[in-house]
Amino acid sequence: MTAQQRESRRLSTRLVNTIRPPLLKIYGVQCVLVILASVMALPSGRDNALSLLIGGLISVVPNAYFARQAFRYAGAAHARKVASSFYRGEAGKYAVTLAGFATVFAFYETLNEFILLAAYLVMLLLNILLVAVWRPRSAE
């Protein structure tokens, strides 16, 4: 690898780290909150707590996959890779979300649909809030 290639790779890595939100922090917080909420919901019934946990995870897991794919590359030199990973992440996110809901509705008979969907929506909103709060400072 030439010195120019190493410098280009170093700048590309720095650019990716500059624009990438702290993904582990965002999805770690969401997972902890979903688990805490489901534990706190145990007194209202095992099925309610499990519905809350599953609904939250159906939101968090596909979004984490998308974010991982979307922020793999950055910069004009990687424009095709950026576009391709973005589309791959979006398609994967929809596939995992649909598979999650289909699996739960097909096999989980004592499901509380309201709690499941409410947890899913709350986690989507929390994701937006956390990304806004922890956005990279250099992007301002």
TrEMBL record:
<dbReference type="GO" id="GO:0005886">
    <property type="term" value="C:plasma membrane"/>
</dbReference>
<feature type="transmembrane region" description="Helical">
    <location>
        <begin position="49"/>
        <end position="71"/>
    </location>
</feature>
<keyword id="KW-1133">Transmembrane helix</keyword>
<feature type="transmembrane region" description="Helical">
    <location>
        <begin position="91"/>
        <end position="108"/>
    </location>
</feature>
<keyword id="KW-0812">Transmembrane</keyword>
<dbReference type="InterPro" id="IPR005598">
    <property type="entry name" value="ATP_synth_I"/>
</dbReference>
<feature type="transmembrane region" description="Helical">
    <location>
        <begin position="114"/>
        <end position="134"/>
    </location>
</feature>
<protein>
    <submittedName>
        <fullName>ATP synthase subunit I</fullName>
    </submittedName>
</protein>
<keyword id="KW-0472">Membrane</keyword>
<keyword id="KW-1003">Cell membrane</keyword>
<feature type="transmembrane region" description="Helical">
    <location>
        <begin position="24"/>
        <end position="43"/>
    </location>
</feature>
<dbReference type="Pfam" id="PF03899">
    <property type="entry name" value="ATP-synt_I"/>
</dbReference>
